[in-house]
Design brief:
Helix content is 29%, strand content 32%. By secondary structure, it is of the alpha+beta class. Strands 1, 2, 3, 4, 5, 6 and 7 form a seven-stranded mixed beta sheet that branches. The chain has one domain.
Length: 139
C-alpha cells in the first residue's frame, strides 16, 4: 500500500523534512509456519543486510528486536512493516555545491495504527545531520 497525498513535512531534530514516499505491507504475508523467535531472527538478518548495503537507513527499535530475539520472545512483531523516505534541503558544511539530503526510516506497527503519526514520533528525536545522506545537485 502506498500513499501519495501530497507532501507532508516532519520535524527531524532541527531539520524540516518532506515525506516523499510511504509504503506499508503485511510482514507475515506468505509465511506458512514459524515462531515469533524465528520471525524476529529472519527480519533482523534481512534488516542488517539492508543496513550494510544502504546509507541513510534508520530502523526504528532494531536493538529492541535484537534483545527480544536473544531472549527468545514469544510475541510476534507487529504485522505491518512500514517504510518512509524523507528529503530535506540540508547540506553538510563541507559540501562543495548545492544539493539535498535523504533519510529512509523503517519500522513495524499494527495495521490499524496511523503511519503518519507514528513516523512523526519516530523521527522527532533523530539527528538528521548524523543519519541522512547528502546528494549533490546534478547539472
Amino acid at each position: 500500500m502506498t500513499w501519495e497525498l501530497g507532501l507532508r513535512t516532519f520535524g527531524v531534530g532541527a531539520i524540516r523534512a518532506e515525506l516523499r514516499e510511504l509504503r506499508m505491507w503485511d510482514d507475515l504475508e506468505g509465511m506458512l509456519e514459524g515462531t515469533p523467535h524465528l520471525h524476529r531472527r529472519f527480519r533482523i538478518g534481512q534488516l542488517e543486510k539492508q543496513l550494510a548495503g544502504a546509507a541513510a537507513l534508520y530502523v526504528h527499535d532494531l536493538d529492541g528486536m535484537r534483545a527480544d530475539a536473544a531472549a527468545r520472545a514469544g510475541t510476534w512483531l507487529p504485522r505491518a512493516q512500514v517504510y518512509a523516505r524523507l528529503t530535506a534541503s540540508w547540506c553538510p558544511d563541507e559540501a562543495a555545491g548545492p544539493g539535498g539530503s535523504e533519510l529512509s526510516v523503517l519500522w513495524f506497527q499494527q495495521p490499524g495504527e496511523d503511519p503518519f503519526g507514528r513516523l512523526a514520533d519516530i523521527v522527532r528525536p533523530l539527528d538528521w545531520t548524523a543519519l541522512a545522506r547528502f546528494e549533490p545537485a546534478c547539472d
